[in-house]
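anyone seen this seq b4? input:
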Amino acid sequence: MLNIQKKMSNPFLALLGLPATAVGFALSTQIAALSWILSNKYGLDIHDVAFVWLAGPIAGIFGQVIVGLISDKVWFMGGRRRPFIMIGGMVSTFAFLALPHINGISKITGIADIILIASVIALFLDLSINVTFNPARSIIADLTPEGKIRTSGFVWMQIMSGFFGVFAYFLSMLFGNVLLLYIAAGIVFLTAVFPILFIQEKKELSELQSNDKSVFGVWEVFKEIYPLYGFLTFGVFSLFFHFYKDALAAWHNPVLIGALAYSVLIGIVNIIQGIKHPSNKNEFQKIMLAHSFTWVAFQSMFIMSGFFIEHQIMPNLNVSTITANWFAQKLTGNTQTSAASIGNIVSLGFFILNLVGAIFPLILQSIAKHIGRVRTYIAALSFSAIGYFYVAYFSHVEIDFYIGMFLVGIGWSAVISIVFAIMSERVNPAKMGLFMGVFNLAVVLPQMMSNGVANIIKETGNHQLLYIFCGCLVTCSVIFWMFINEPESSNVKQNIPSKGH
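predicted toks r here
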């Protein structure tokens, strides 16, 4: 074991966060390049692009829970989490190399359906990301004690991941999205496969873990996620809707509204139950539901911002004066087209979002010491809601979009750092991988709702609705977070019975 691991020093926490950094870089590359390459290189419309993105949630449903469950129990290649991190990193590498060659793959295989090929490649990419992400987060919880050190571990994870995400968007602006995919293949391979070789996992389980004999199978997982049934229902509906639009058109909006209404009502029921019978299980389910509304917003933003910029901002701009084009023009000498400009603006906006996301965890960690992690999270997420509404109502030129992304980035810095530290203290440590997977369903099932947002925007032709929806959804999440209690390991303590999990 490395001395830095024995001391739980900051260099070790940074090393521990590198596998999750690989996932963060992969996600940023996917966000920067996938929608752009599908719409501009292969001509897919907003609905088809959103359908391809459904591959991610589908992969997450199976990958995160199954891998989490298996990685809690097995030991091979020197670890529980290590094998999945290494395998996921290698599959991501191959998927990135395949994305620029969809037409070539179509000719070789004889499959003319570009959407099908893109969906399969996206499915493998997302499956590899999901296979990697759960163990990459779980290993942080495995090897750090509850409280400040664990929070620091997740903060370091976000700092590393955030800066690599920033780098991905910078590379996108500098070299374009196609070359970015090749660079991502190399970086993901290096950061996912090699650092984990220097981290020693615990082969012997703790007494609590070794004495845990409870069974948690598919049915138990299904019961556990009952607050997410609305998102699950619409996700399944979306898959059928893509193929049977005419037959199901009249059902689309009622199913979407019903799914959201169910989620809100079940959230109210959970809050009432938590007041009457507080428990870790209830807290976990409240966190899961509150988190889910956030991810409908973020996923919709990631998928459709390019279309928003194309219709809401680009008509007001002159291509020769676009700030986001400066990097590519000055450093490569290449003249930027309108299509490239859309990608550049998206990349610079998400560059700002991820830069804020990389810096702010340290600030939030300091604030959390005084007011608690939950209140800090609520405050950060509120800035995201403000940012979304700002973009929706005031974003007419390039700089407005960047201001909005700065505000949204404050909440983003908390969404992928603090929330995991809070959640991990509400579950059985013997099943950390499993519950990380279950919790990820609060990410992937809501992501499927973005397909509904895309359908409404396509029907109405009003791209402003994207950020209005995002603002409303994050506001809903903030309200639910107000009823979540602070973990006992925080400086701001509340006595919550440990019943459940």
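The two ends are 31 Å apart (CA to CA). The chain has one domain: 15-199+216-238+246-481. kinda curious what u guys think
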